[in-house]
Write the structure tokens for this entry.
Amino acid sequence: MTGDRLRQAAKALNQGVSQRVEGGQAAAFQATLNAAARGDEDAFGALWRNLQPTLLNYLKVIAPDSAEDLSAETWLEVIRKLDRFQGDEPAFRSWVLTIARQQVVDWRRRSARRRTEPLSTGTPERAAPDWLSASVADTISGREALSLVTSLPPAQAEVVILRVIAGLNVAEVAAITGKTPSAVRMLSHRALRRLAQEVKATQSDG
């Protein structure tokens, strides 16, 4: 299916990072999480190394100019709240990305308050390229994948980064973005169709 091919094409974005904990690793994750919640720096470092690439890629899509700073703010908030979190590795990933999105919302509000001049019409909505057919799924690089995703309209780009790269399901994406599952599916379908067309056009030009 298209989603599976997209995951294959995006693997370079998160090389060496486990996207899901399976089998006996689930217990190891829980032990690491519990140790981190008790203040174990090595355990927290392990959580950071596992999720930071996905988090940073997500922030590069929804807030590219401040992704590094917002990543740091997200992890600070995670530290503050970690002892109250309960759940497995997929739930932890969803929780951290939810915190990240709220950091972006707060950052935008602060930025808006600091402005002393009226807002301009802003950056025009980015022309939406289109994504990966089967013929290019195995050839596009991770850097190219991220570049294509960030060229989408913001709502589509956010859904794609969460579904394809972060590996979240429709319900998890809906909870993070505040959209209905139907809206998430619609945005994902439109984005992937447009991206497939763009990749084909790029190959034709080359």
